Amino acid sequence: MRRRIIYAIYILVGAAVGFYYLPLLWDVVNISLDRALLVFIDVIIGAIIFWLISLPLVGVTEKMIQRIEKELTKRSPIYLFFGTLLTIVGLILAVLISIPLWRTQIPVINNILPIILMIIFSYFGFRIGTTRLDEWRKMFAHARNPKADNQSKNVIKQQDANYHHYKILDTNILIDGRIYDLVKTGFLEGTLLVPNFVLYELQYIADSGENIKRVRGRRGLDILNKLRSENIVPIEMYDGDFEDIPEVDSKLIALAKKVDGVIVTNDYNLNKVIQFQNVQVLNINNLAKSLRPRVIPGEKMTVVVVKKGTERQQGVAYLDDGTMVVVEDGRYFMNKRIEVEVTSALQTDAGRMIFARPLHSQRGIDEHVDKDKKANNNNK
Prior knowledge:
The protein is an alpha/beta fold.
């Protein structure tokens, strides 16, 4: 059905072109026929020529239409409405400007220039309508209820200077999944804001050919759907885009500056870039580090030595929260649960490291040493 419509459009365009422009050709070659017959011949010849042209181009045209349909289905109704509305406004302005141009007898000005104006004005109308969705939405909301708009502005002004209403979620924080548990605790206030370009990136990852990426993307989409369905905190979608900015991280920074929001992430590099751009950030990795239990020298704990350390006779264990514990003489207690005493703690960019020593007597360690020596002598 679609191919037939495309063929019909090509034939109609060809008939119109033949009707308007083939008479010029007959005047050049001095062919004179009956007016009605000549019009019929012009229409038929133009339709046949464009039908022949459509044969190799119908496949390309159909693919282009499918691509346009796919892009339009991704857009929100608000995006399409304002884009279409402002495009029509641009065309009307172009027609009004072109009326005196059509009345002139100058060949290029009375036919080519109006078409160029229509293309330019419709393009700029579409761009204005689709890149300023927030402004249009606020304008219509203010027109419906100006008192409510003024009240909301007053409420925002009454907030503390450190308060930011919008918490902007990036792709990594949704894939990570801990944002759901954090939201359930009630520590995040305000409104969660999910930009469309983040949603598109999640969809792209979920459609990836690699199994790991596909699972990560689907988990991010599942977390987003859980946040919306359970409605623990308000969550909004941001329909706008910053098409002049290619990177998603840079778009997040631009959006945070635009809506005076805070970016919620777990990306270490993005965290540094955001801080350099003078935008506030909530890094849940920093939150998790700050919530880890503090240890002091002399404190006792029970650990399982799982591997050898980098230094001689050291062993490495891990707490439940992932904190590394370096145990002196720990290699003599591999895969054993032992009680240790904390000697010191060190905070690094990678996390906290705890240094400890076993509470076993020195005699116990010496027994292990003697056993190792005996085993070595027997092997010799």
